[in-house]
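Anyone else keep sequences and structure tokens together like this?

Example one:
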Amino acid sequence: MFSRILVFFPPSSFSLVVGASSSNSHADARNSSDLAFKLFRERIFSDLIVRKLQKGILTWVTWERNERYALLIDRSIHTSSPHPSTRQVHIYRSFLKALVSHLVTHNIYDSIFERYFVEQTRAYFLAESRRKVEVENVRAQEFLTHCKERAIWEEGRARDVMLDGTVALVKDTSVRALFEGRLEWMAREGGS
């Protein structure tokens, strides 16, 4: 029986020597497996790969947010009101579900996906809030309706793709970002 197992992780220049004794082989095998899994995760999810994943996530969610909104605006121009059940879903949404599953398996969902997604959600809806109020000059009631619709859409998207614990966080982040700095304006406009 081999007293040592030498494991190489090409193309890197390091190697790892893992001891395996006959008396504690189950514990050593589990430790070896854990260590190999950790090293695999570190190699697969390098900074370059993480940046590409995050860029893809941002591209996906921005497309869905913009296309769905544009579709509803287009429908509202051609009909009396937007059709709330219209869902414009990106063709790769199913891959996002698989990505979430893999990230959970590798115990990096929070650090690579959730935190980034919430940060980008906040940035997106802060910009949308500014655009709606300061550029498009919407009325407070119209803005409130818009915010309710957006919160429902965000919650639905999160429910379709993300872990249950992320759903409320995404919805809350979108609502807070939309209303940030707008409550006084809404109260003033509502009172006049």
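And example two:
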Amino acid sequence: MGNMKNTLKIAIQSICILAVLFVVGLALASALGYVYIGIKQPAQVTQNRAVACSAQDIKEYNETVVTFVSTEDQLRDKAVKQQAKVNTLKKVSGFDQDPTCVFMEYSAAVANNNVQAAQSALSSLEGFSKDGLYPSNELFDVVSLDSMHDRIEALKNVDKENTETRGSG
């Protein structure tokens, strides 16, 4: 009987220790920004987005996303296919009101080195973000707005270098 009490006491202590460790870990994750503990303000609540690009469209788009390619020709071919998919989707009613569709447009513009189209799409995505509307997480290549700005700046730098190289050659 005494042995059973000791076992039960150890089990309860172990559970208490694990609970304390869990709470401390959760508090630490929250403090570091990995976990949000609280109630969202009305402006922070994610709203339903317009759906012009279906799950099938996302799947087909994901198949065209530039992932690993071994030659420049394969890279160019994938970028052309990606733009073709976006051009098809642009005919869908509500394309410009769906953040998922607009992100696809941004990504295709970047893949095809079209700075102006990428900037236009990014501007729309920033507006969606302010309204709590975001692209689908099912897209393979979703990145933050900051990363999107960085990609456009990189494209501008490449264009500038190419222009200077052609001008001096």
